[in-house]
Amino acid sequence: MLNGGMKLSWMVFSYSLPSKSSSSPRVTLWRRLRRLGAISLKDSIHVLPARDECIESFQWLAQEVQQAKGEALIMRVEQFEGLADQEIIELFSKTRSEEYQEIEARSIELEKSVNTIASTEARSSLLEALEKLRKQHTEIARVDFFDCPDGIRVMTQLNRIAQALSPNLSSAIAVPRTAVDEYRDKRWVTRPRPYIDRLACIWLIRRFINPNAEIRYSHKVAPDEVAFEMKDATFGHCGNLCTFEVMTIAFDLNDPGLQVVGEIVHEIDLRDGLYARPETTGVDAVLQGWLLGNLSDAELELCGIKLFEGLYTVFSKQYRESA
Q1: How far is Cα 175 from Cα 247, in angstroms, rounded to an integer?
Q2: I need a surface site. Which of 193, 231, 286, 297 has the fewest CB within 10 A?
Q3: Quick one: which H or E segment has residue 114?
Q4: Residue 248: HSE in the Cβ half-sphere, 13 Å Cα cutoff
Q5: In the prediction, which pLDDT does 271 show?
Q6: How many CB atoms lie within 10 A of CB 184?
Q7: What gap in Å lies between CA 278 and CA 137, rounded to an integer?
Q8: CA dist list (Å): 149 to 45, 53, 314, 318
Q9: Which pLDDT tens digit goes with each residue over 66-81?
Q10: Partners of 39 in the beta sheet?
């Protein structure tokens, strides 16, 4: 909790608004403080851990107060008199716990509805509701500075609902298995201007098969190359599976973190509404920005590897903590 025994520092934010100001700025500031994850020790004393992103958040908030003709004060505090660090952490955890429990209550009702699905329209409605809950969970987790245990429990519940709503297509579609060792020294080729599915496959090749693999971008395949995500490729779409999903199945990569990455890739690539992932919109926007920025194939590959490594690291950590 206390970073291996290290003493914590805290950022304190205090503000006042003109007595004649309308209620609108007060409500706006209250909402902003809640979204930042701040806790209130007294009516006008708000606290965050002294992290760079928290300091910056309070600085922006101070500007908003000043624009509303008010006054704001930001302080770094090493210790609160009569209040230990662990007690402050418990206040943060209690606040996050209450927020997670609100999602949990709605998740319980949603899970009850899963067993009564009678139509595609009903399933689509449940997926939309699940996506909203996941977005709310993501917002809370973003400011869950001290890893409240309720967050992992609720995430596990949401993942269970997602699994119930998502048919296991991989078991219905026959994908031949192959050994990773057979492809370690292979040369690879795919179409130029790689987007979501190809970028994910490139990351998978470099992450799990050969970090130094030679990957070429072309519409033509040389006799000694393994083609993926292109016409007559060794690895391509299979039924309703995108190429990334096919490759994870073919190489028997059953990592739960890869499953989540595959759901994001699937939804952006196929847009069939099969998976409700709150990260999908943001990832898609980033990829489109790279293309609009006219990045070269090599730059797209480099950026894509960093993006998918980051996603995989986050999702793998979440599943390890929930196991």
Answers
A1: 9
A2: 231
A3: helix 85-114
A4: 24
A5: 82
A6: 11
A7: 10
A8: 26, 23, 17, 12
A9: 988 899 999 999 999 8
A10: 47
Interatomic CA distance for residues 289 and 291, integer angstroms: 5
Instruction: In whole angstroms, give the CA distance from residue 133 to residue 110.
Output: 10
Report pLDDT for 98.
96
Classify residue 212 by its DSSP letter.
Answer: T
Q: Which amino acid, residue 119? A: S
State the helix-helix crossing angle for 297-322 and 149-165, rounded to 10 degrees. Answer: 110
Mean pLDDT, all residues of the chain: 89
Q: Could you identify the residue written with the tokens 């960093």?
A: 306
Q: With beta carbons less than 8 A apart as the criterion, state whether 137 and 103 touch.
A: yes
> Looking at residue 120, what is its pLDDT?
64
Q: 224 and 266: one domain?
A: yes
Let me know if residue 54 belongs to a domain.
yes
Q: Please give the Cα distance from 32 to 310 (Å, whole number).
A: 27
Domain range enclosing 111: 102-165
User: For the segment 270-287, what is each residue's pLDDT rounded down to a tens digit?
Assistant: 887 777 788 898 999 999
Are 64 and 124 contained in the same domain? no
d(CA 269, CA 197): 6
Total number of domains in the chain: 3
- Given a cut of 70, whether residue 245 has pLDDT beyond it is yes
d(CA 251, CA 180): 6
Q: Dihedral angle at the C-alpha atoms of 148, 150, 152, 155, nearest 10 degrees?
A: -130
Asked whether the predicted pLDDT for residue 235 surpasses 50, the reply is yes
> Is 1 inside a domain boundary?
no
Cα distance between residue 110 and residue 89, in whole Å? 31
Q: What is the dihedral of CA 287, 292, 295, 296, to 10 degrees?
A: 100
For 233, counting Cβ atoms within 10 Å of its Cβ (0-12 exposed, 13-18 middle, 19+ buried), the class is middle
SS (H, E, C) 123-169: HHHHHHHHHHHHHHHHHHHHCCCCCCHHHHHHHHHHHHHHHHHCCCH
Instruction: Say whether pTM exceeds 0.85.
Output: no
Sheet of 45-49, strand order: 39-42, 45-49, 10-16, 71-77
